[in-house]
Design brief:
By secondary structure, the chain is α+β, with helices and mostly antiparallel strands. The protein has helices at 12-22, 77-84; strands at 33-36, 42-48, 53-59. A hairpin with a 4-residue loop joins strand 2 (42-48) and strand 3. The model is unreliable at 93-98 (pLDDT under 50).
């Protein structure tokens, strides 16, 4: 997840450039990269599935996504699903250790 607003008019190439340039991450790692707009009403997810890039989008009809602070943030799977569902994830702790 990239904290901070992103211009969601960007498509595959623009968001890929953010992942590789600004975040300095491997786009082909299988990681899901999330991007949110300034009003926090839209999300885009970019991920590599082994044969190509997936770009998914979600728009909330009411309310805002519980997008957290500054910097890059890693989410546990349950936090990811809660965020995409529009639920609050602030203060969650992972329930297991790797």
């Amino acid at each position: 997840m990239r904290a901070g607003p992103t211009d969601l008019r960007l498509g595959f190439e623009g968001l890929s450039a953010i992942v590789q340039g600004q975040l300095q991450q491997d786009l082909l790692s299988g990681t899901v990269f999330l991007f949110c707009n300034r009003p926090r009403t839209r999300l885009k997810a970019l991920s590599w599935d082994g044969s190509g890039l997936w770009l998914s989008a979600k728009r909330l009809e009411k309310g805002t996504f519980a997008w957290r602070g500054d910097g890059d943030v890693e989410l546990e799977p349950a936090q990811f699903y809660a965020l995409v569902a529009g639920l609050e994830i602030k203060g969650w702790r992972p329930w297991y250790r790797r």
